[in-house]
Amino acid sequence: MIRRGTGRDVTGLLQDFGHELPTKPGPPTKEKEPRLFRSALGRGNPRRGAGWAASMKPPVASYRMTSDQAAVVWPWLAGPGLPPTGALMGMDAQSGGKFYADPVGWVRDDNIPVTNHNIFSMGKPGVGKSGTTKAFALRMLCFRHYKTFVPGDPKDEYERLCRFLGVEPIAIGPGLAARINPLDFGPLINGWEDLPRAEAHKRAQVVFGRWLTLLGGLVGSQRVGGAPVPFGPNEQAVCQAALEDLTGWSEGATQLRVTTIPHLWAALDEPSPALVNTCRYATQQEFMDGTRLLRNALLQLVKGRLSGLFDTETTVEIDWNAPIQSLSLSRLDALGDEAVGIALTCVNSWGRGMRELAAREDVRIVIRDEAWRQFRLGVDAIKSFDADLRFSRGKGDEGGDIQFAVMHKPSDLLSVGDQGSQAAMIAKDLLELADVKILHGQKPSVAGELDEMLGLGPVAKDLITGWAMQDKGRAVWSIGDRIHQVSTLLHPIERQLTWTQPVAEAG
């Protein structure tokens, strides 16, 4: 007889016959994380440096989200910064670190969304555009191969900087000795007699192409009943035929002759039978009738307000080894915005010609101040400016000129013609030729135009109308599709050199 409680259960019975029932797994054991801070009391020793806290479990809210969601909740999280190369401009308010500007280096870096190194700087007067521009040019001089060229300084803003660097600016104006021939060959004429035929043809195409673009801008700046003088295929063909004859290219000369705008006008005003025939006119009178507007427009350039400034051979010598060179145009200010715009078109084209054979490692910062005056001349002047941006020498890691255009607002680009016109569309497309935009403080209406043209977004728009207006030198740097909130910091000496107003005498 088996007493209660002493018998085998089912598990034991089955084990006697060699069967094992599966066991139910128990709850997993949790390993305790090692304590980083140990103290004798639960909340630490109540003394300084002992880890004491007022409560054991302070209320802390925890969230889990993706990285793209985090940018919405905390929009001021700083992304990857730019490499510390180039000119140290100031502080990046978003990251709290230093901000370096290196447009050519950005083009070389595949991680930065920049494909060209041209710069557009915009901002209302008095917000620090000139200070930022001059500080960039001055600080880049500290790096090998970088120099500055100002092909047209309408307000003498760069004279103080030039003299500080030991360079006397070149003044152009009525009664002065300096002369610029916009139809100058530049260095492409060097060694012409020894050039292979293919190279000579290549250089000739570059020279005549630059001249025709310039002439289009100059002729188109003249008006007939409010409409610009046309410079279409017929006018281009006539001018090119005359220029080829004047320089000796049409006759295969081994040494080309220097020509000027008065020479071109005289050749069209008294055309030779060969020129009439080359241009496919039946008679000389038909040639005169067909080129009347073109000749009258050129005559205004020869005998108009700018007479004697851009109609003779070049008399200035540019030292391209100097750290900076500037052509001062302030003496033309009394002649009006149109005259200054024409002068800017001439010196910019001449400057581009002078840079045709620049060495790859020779990087020039070409400052295009008061660019809006050139835009007002019409569509052909816009095309000339467009050509300067497109043909900046060098590609990527091969160097090249940095075109630095300074203006007030985006309407400077849109006011060149009616909305939707060819001039307005070309001017608007200029922004695509500069991957770097420095956007200083603006009024809300102007910031709205910038947002519409560049797609900045509400954050950048608010910075331009708010934060950037609160102090000089503040700007939103748009580098490709990246936005940086930068405050340019100037040394006291730089403030004296970059200040655009007369400096008060200490007394």
Summarize the structure.
This protein is an alpha/beta fold. Helix content is 36%, strand content 12%.
Helix content: 25-40%
Structural classification? alpha/beta
Mean pLDDT: 83
Our estimate of the beta-strand percent is 5-15%
Main sheet overview: 11 strands, mixed
Main sheet strand line-up: 2-1-13-12-11-3-10-9-4-8-5
Uncertain runs: 502-507
Tally of extended strands?
A: 13
CATH homologous superfamily annotation of the domain at 87-156 and 327-498: P-loop containing nucleotide triphosphate hydrolases
Oligomeric nature of the chains: single chain
Q: Can you identify the CATH class of the domain at 87-156 and 327-498?
A: Alpha Beta
Q: What keywords describe this structure?
A:
507 residues, alpha/beta, Rossmann fold, 11-stranded mixed beta sheet, two-stranded antiparallel sheet, 19 helices, 13 strands, disordered C terminus
Description:
Among the domains are: 87-156 and 327-498, 3-Layer(aba) Sandwich (Rossmann fold), CATH 3.40.50; 192-289, no CATH class. The chain has 19 helices and 13 strands. The chain has helices at residues 10-16, 67-73, 103-108, 129-140, 159-164, 197-220, 233-247, 261-269, 273-278, 284-290, 292-303, 337-354, 371-375, 379-390, 411-414, 422-429, 444-454, 458-465, 492-498; strands at 87-92, 98-101, 119-122, 146-153, 170-171, 223-224, 227-228, 324-328, 363-368, 402-407, 436-440, 474-479, 482-488.
